[in-house]
Amino acid sequence: MKISPHWLRDFVDLPVDYLHLADELTLAGVAVEGISGEGDNTVFEMEITTNRPDAMNHYGVAREVSALYDLPLKPIEPKLPPSQGKSDVTIDIQEPELCPRFTAREIRGVAIKPSPAIVANRLLLIDQRPISNAVDATNYVCGRAASRRTCSISICSKAAGWS
What we know:
The chain is mostly helical. About 35% of the residues lie in helices and about 10% in strands. It has helices spanning about 5-10, 20-25, 60-70, 115-125, 135-140, 145-160, and strands at about 1-5, 30-35, 45. The chain has a three-stranded antiparallel sheet with strand order 1-3-2. It is globular.
């Protein structure tokens, strides 16, 4: 998994350089197996084991950094439009014992277009191709593609009556 230490600075004030951070993360069990680029374009190639899904994105690794250095973790504060009331979208949780909590937010009226440059550049840095603002938003927030996009598509398909 590719993680940008520059991106981590959005969530925690890093007190060390990237090489020192890579060593500290590895010693803490979140292994940095390789480093490419330099400066703000540095990328860590990380080995995140399957028992640590909480660390499989930038915010999760930032949480590790926060704990390592006893620093505050900046909360994610999305700026969403006000709710328009109850949605017509339904979500069917087929295995409630495996998913005790699920939250969702329907956003209507989004024009599909290219993502802002900062989003596209960050995705490119971690080897993800920008596609559109709608798809890139999921990849940007989650830090990776595939499973979340598949989940989003299946939810949208069911809501639209396609499945």
